[in-house]
Amino acid sequence: MSNQENSLYSGDRRIRNIVIVGGGSAGWMTAAALAKVMGHHTSITLIESADIGTVSVGEATIPNIRAFNQLLELNEDELLAKTQGTFKLGIEFVDWYEKDHAYMHPFGPYGQNLSGVPFHHYWLGSSEHAGAPITDWCLEATAAYQGKFERYTRQRGRPVPTNYAFHFNAVAYAAYLADYAVDRGVKRIIDHVDEVRTSKDSGFIQSLMLSSGQEIAGDLFIDCSGFKGLLIEQTLHTGFEDWHHWLLCDSAIAQPCAIGDHYPPYTRSLAQEAGWQWQIPLQNRWGNGHVYASAFLEQDKALNVLHANMPDTPTGDPNYLHWRTGRRRQAWNKNCIAIGLSAGFLEPLESTGLHLVQSAISRLLSLFPDRHFDDTLRNKFNQYSREELERIRDFIILHYKATRRTDTDFWAYCANMDIPDSLSEKIELYRHSGRIFRENLELFSEISWFSVLNGQGIKPNAIHPLTEGMQVAERDSLLSQLKTQTQQQAQAMSCHQAYIKQHCSMESQ
Ligand SMILES: Cc1cc2nc3c(=O)[nH]c(=O)nc-3n(C[C@H](O)[C@H](O)[C@H](O)COP(=O)(O)OP(=O)(O)OC[C@H]3O[C@@H](n4cnc5c(N)ncnc54)[C@H](O)[C@@H]3O)c2cc1C
């Protein structure tokens, strides 16, 4: 056997041509990441249609996006300036549990674990402190409500990083990444894919026929073509698992409006009669959108609700969007991998769309195939994609299920609907014992789950017995100290607008 045959390297089996269809956020995030890590020995081509627009939404992110930007070695201040971005410390949910009630899902922790026991047990068990909102012990939530922001605060003389994400203009973000990818050798073709050619024997995709008559061949095809899934569904007929019965919202109307000088460092989610409305502050406008269930509300009424609850005068036209909630049965089928909306969609309540793109890219990099397309790699990719999406699905369903609202048919349905067993188990464990566990590769931490379980009014019947290792007076005094410390840290932060003006103002571009 020659050295070549004996080698563990892929050699001739190596993927040489990657073709990405779609130039939305998913396409350009994928192209940018592949261009960064693959180097020039692999050809990467991205095809985007001039006739089919992108969804042009996806303005709120979660903190993991920073890891993606760091992989690309992006300059965060420059990125925010070019995308009119602001900082995000959490999401406020208004009228979800009941009308005139609000809570926050912040990105940072509450207090600190004491003797290994999560802080919320001490808060729940304290007769002196349980009346105060638990967000008083969370720096990110306190700063958010005070309109403050810093990337670092000081605790006992040491810098402590803040947990934050961004709000940004999604179209500008994709454009920024497009420049990045093209600078690193990605070939950009603006043309329409008219036909997809597959092998008669294997069913693998071989090439794409473009409107211009050009034929683009490839080894690996990445489907970032949006909801319709041009390759993964329309060509490979992979199948779709529908979750519409748990997540009724299937439509949205997005429309920006003017913003004054005040842009809070958090997203707002206002529950409405058959869905909810987002308010996302950017440096130059509010991003607004009404997500609703079309079975319960007509489109013109949905537009009225959006306008009635906008913080300022609309600018720009409404953008109407419709989708099917659920997941593609296999995100990776044959030599095609679906990333972005083509892989499935969960409504944007917890801003997980771009994160799902990012995590699919990181899974692809870990399980990157050669031209043999080993089934074990594909199966792992599909298993992890499914598990990740199911856990996020459960987290989003929780917001609808755990409500006291029955004032409209929509909310009455949600309050009474059956939910997945995996979610029931999580709620029951918490209800019985205050305990929360993060399963396998689950995206949302115990802190996130606690924020929503508690915010949506679920009270545990018991707390962790180990809290009793500390005397009541000692616990209460520690809680007082931690609260004071949190408030002082927030006080010392800059005003969010001032921080942006100093570091990443869009006017600096
Ligand atoms: C209402 C709503 C709100 C959202 N809010 C958030 C949020 O706050 N945060 C978040 O993280 N995510 C959010 N998302 C999700 C996020 O917008 C998407 O995950 C992200 O934009 C990725 O979209 P995409 O690139 O997969 O698809 P698209 O943006 O639809 O892009 C599809 C691309 O495919 C191209 N294409 C299609 N057909 C062809 C063809 N035949 N030939 C050539 N090219 C073709 C199109 O030209 C386009 O470039 C939201 C989604 C929706 C629907």
What summary fits the major beta sheet?
Answer: 7 strands, mixed
Mean pLDDT: 95
Could you say which structural class the secondary elements and strand pairing correspond to?
alpha+beta
Relevant CATH superfamily of the domain at 14-59 and 169-241 and 325-373: FAD/NAD(P)-binding domain
Q: Which fold does the CATH topology of the domain at 14-59 and 169-241 and 325-373 refer to? A: FAD/NAD(P)-binding domain
Total E-strand runs: 25
Share of helix among residues?
25-40%
CATH class call of the domain at 14-59 and 169-241 and 325-373: Alpha Beta
- How much beta, percentage-wise? 15-25%
How many helical elements? 15
Global Rg: 24 Å
Bound molecules: flavin-adenine dinucleotide
Distance between the termini: 60 Å
Note poorly predicted spans. none
Shape annotation: globular
